[in-house]
Known about the structure:
The complex is a heterodimer.
Chain A: E1 21-27, H1 43-56, E2 59-65, H2 69-81, E3 89-101, E4 109-111, E5 117-119, H3 120-125, E6 140-147, E7 157-158, H4 160-163, H5 166-169, E8 204-208, E9 218-219, E10 223-224, H6 225-237, H7 243-256, E11 258-259, E12 263-264, E13 268-272
Parallel strand pairs in A: 1-2, 1-3, 3-6, 3-7, 6-8
Antiparallel strand pairs in A: 3-4, 4-5, 8-13, 9-10, 11-12
Chain B: H1 12-17, H2 28-33, E1 36-38, E2 45-47, E3 53-54, H3 63-70, H4 75-81, H5 83-90
Antiparallel strand pairs in B: 1-2, 2-3
Helix pairs in contact in B: 4-5
Bound molecules: zinc ion (ZN).
Amino acid sequence: TRPRPRRDSIQCYKMDASPCGHCLIINNVEFDPRSELSNRTGSNIDCDKLERRFKALNFIVEVKANLKQRQIKHQLSALSKKDHSQFDCCVVIMLSHGTEVSHSRFPGAVYGVDGQHIPVQYITNYLNGQHCPSLQGKPKLFFIQACGGGEKDTGFEVSPDEVEPSFGGEDDQTDAIPMSSSSDSLSMSDEPDARATLPTPSDILVSYSTFPGYVSWRDTQSGSWYVETLDRILEESASINDLVTMLMMVNHEVSQNSAKGLYKQMPGSFNFLRKLLYFQTQA
Amino acid sequence: QHANTHVSMGSYEERLDSFAGVQHPIDPERLARAGFYSTGTGDRVLCFCCGGGLKGWQPEEDPWEEHAKHYPGCRFLLEEKGQEFVNNVQLQDPQR
Ligand SMILES: [Zn+2]
């Protein structure tokens, strides 16, 4: 087995702070009937697994259940206002219904229990270098188990232009964060990316249970394929493998699975990390 | 953001035409096939679908791979190349 680097280096993120960082889990199970979104039976199983898993990885885990869109924004805003200077990493986990929203880097959106959605791009913006300076240069991880959103949402799409104006409009001030840009310009100063002409987000990784717009399978008895696989692979191999390698394993396993022998699910990884990431494990 | 403003570059031929008279380190046919058209400024290209721009091209680079590396959410990219291709590019380690 490979030696597990803990210190900051050119190849690896520093991950030896104890605790390692905050982990916020938003678990949306019961939806307002007016939203026409079904209740997400089985999601509590996912939530419990991930709460235990990230505690074992030495994160301070906080679970919030059944949040409306503005409450999701409020929780993210509160997380971004925390002082993360003693920590090495930050994790956000969203378990909800999802839908398709176009974006060049982080497409997709997640529903509040009120049926209002929040684009993934905005979720990541809360923690970028501009809005959360104490996480600058540190890995910010987003795990999203987003179920298809039901029949209602197949093929439903909102362009970023349409979404933006509502952002900030009805929000109170504490929740007002970034407009459109996915830029993380402050934290890219050490390694300017000459390739892309749009500001490149850095140190952000988003792992989706499925590419936005596709169905994500959840078993009412055993939870979702994605979370089950993610949890198991973290348990089995976080002590030897880096995160990106583990996500390749998760993607491979989930895509091999099939529901009713008919449908496939392929998780999506949108990775703007600059280094390898090894979690802290007991071993 | 540019998704709607560049609808006119939706066809391969139009994108290819944009490279007329432009010296580019990458074969314009490969760029056009990967959704890019020339902005006329240096080697800068834009994707007609996601609006993502790229410049500073190296001759050995592959337009689809660069598209997937920097703009993995692009719908055109996903439709043409599929999720597995995007994942493979995104999970090459260590990125950049
Ligand atoms: Zn594109």
